[in-house]
Design brief:
There is one protein chain. The protein is 19% helix and 29% strand. The chain is of the alpha+beta class. The strands form 2 sheets. Strands 4-3-2-1-6-7-8-9-5 form a 9-stranded antiparallel beta sheet, with no helix packed on it. An 8-stranded antiparallel beta sheet has the order 12-11-10-14-15-16-17-13. A hairpin with a 6-residue loop joins strand 8 and strand 9 (167-171).
Length: 341
């Protein structure tokens, strides 16, 4: 290799090296200033064992989920049990939140991202109601454009920490449970009336009917059937069987008004095992009926005896689809003329 070639190679290496340095400088300049926060855990010190309560605040409502012994209860619903699995899942989810993106947060951005008073504040409280972690939960984030943002599942959520008021963070979880809606926190298991022996329904307008059977597999009989009336067995079965499939949509607040429970549809059911249920079905609130009930004659060791006792102390909201077969009027239980021909 002659001297000229050596000189050319040295020059090329210098040029390439300088170009690489220049490229690296440009790349560093292009990187977002917040690159150091990516992947950072939002709550490094928060521990599940230290949390005694979760207080969620929205512009017009507050929900408090408190730990009582080995249970979690909803304070605003007279200590109705929260679903322990849902509480645990939410706590672990928040503790594990990591930053996917961050950006400076000005006053206009705060309002745009619902990280101001229009947002949701989640406070984790320790002993003696001392705050040990607070998160402001704002607008939901979608990777693509959706037709109905209210119903579509989001890909993430914008959040902020009170101690870092100038920064908004994007996390990769929609945090659907960051809400004061009790329906998102309760156990949906309702009371169930199994092996019905007698079922009686009375409407406020006087319409009433009663069906009875002596055994589980026996045919139903319509009490006081008039000449020409014949009970539609499939509808009688549906009326009684639906009481085994009741589902809880929500718990009504203590001060709920206009429930219709003063003049309800009354349902009386007696089981083959001797239990008695007195159920009042009130007005609709959206797609759910207000319902209250009492029960007697349950065996102490029955699988849901404790749950029934708790539920009977509250006004429930039960989907109308779970009750419509039971609260039909008398004429709807009868075979139609064309069916009898």
């Amino acid at each position: 290799m002659n001297a000229r070639v050596v000189v050319i190679l040295v020059v090329l290496l210098a040029v390439l090296g300088g170009g690489a340095l220049f490229y690296q400088h440009q790349e560093r300049a292009r990187r977002p200033e917040n690159v150091g926060t990516l992947g950072r855990t939002l709550f490094k010190e928060l521990k599940a064992a230290d949390i005694a309560a979760i207080r969620i605040t929205e512009p017009n409502a507050t929900l408090t989920i408190q730990r009582k012994d080995d249970r979690w209860v909803i304070a605003e619903r007279a200590d109705f049990p929260a679903d322990v699995a849902k509480v645990r899942e939410f706590v672990l989810k928040v503790i594990g939140l990591k930053v996917g993106q961050s950006e400076p947060l000005g006053e206009k951005d705060r309002a745009r991202l619902n990280l101001d008073t229009s947002g949701t504040q989640v406070a984790f409280l320790g002993a003696e109601d001392k705050p040990i972690g607070t998160l402001i939960v704002g607008r939901r984030y979608f990777k693509r454009e959706v037709e109905n943002p209210e119903k579509a599942r989001a890909d993430g959520r914008f959040v902020a920490l009170p101690a870092e008021a100038g920064t908004a963070y994007l996390v990769g979880d929609p945090l659907t449970q960051a809400t004061v809606k009790t329906a998102e926190w309760i156990d949906r298991a309702s009371f169930q009336v199994e092996k019905v022996k007698m079922l009686q329904v009375r409407h406020p307008d006087g319409d009433a009917w009663r069906i009875e059977r002596p055994a589980d597999n026996a045919d139903w009989r319509l009490a006081g059937a008039k000449p020409g009336e014949k009970l539609d067995v499939s509808r009688a079965n549906a009326a009684s069987y639906s009481l085994q499939l009741l589902e809880l949509a929500d718990i009504a607040p203590k001060d709920a008004k206009d429930t219709g429970l003063e003049t309800p549809v009354s349902v009386e059911a007696t089981t083959l095992e001797g239990a008695n249920y007195s159920i009042k079905v009130g007005k609709l609130a959206g797609e759910n009926h207000y319902v209250s009930f009492s029960a007697s004659g349950l065996k102490p060791d029955a699988k849901d005896a404790e749950r029934v006792k708790v539920l009977s102390q509250h006004v429930l909201l039960i989907p109308k689809g779970k009750l419509e077969d039971t609260i039909k009027k008398r004429a709807e239980l009868l075979e139609k003329e064309d069916k009898k021909k």
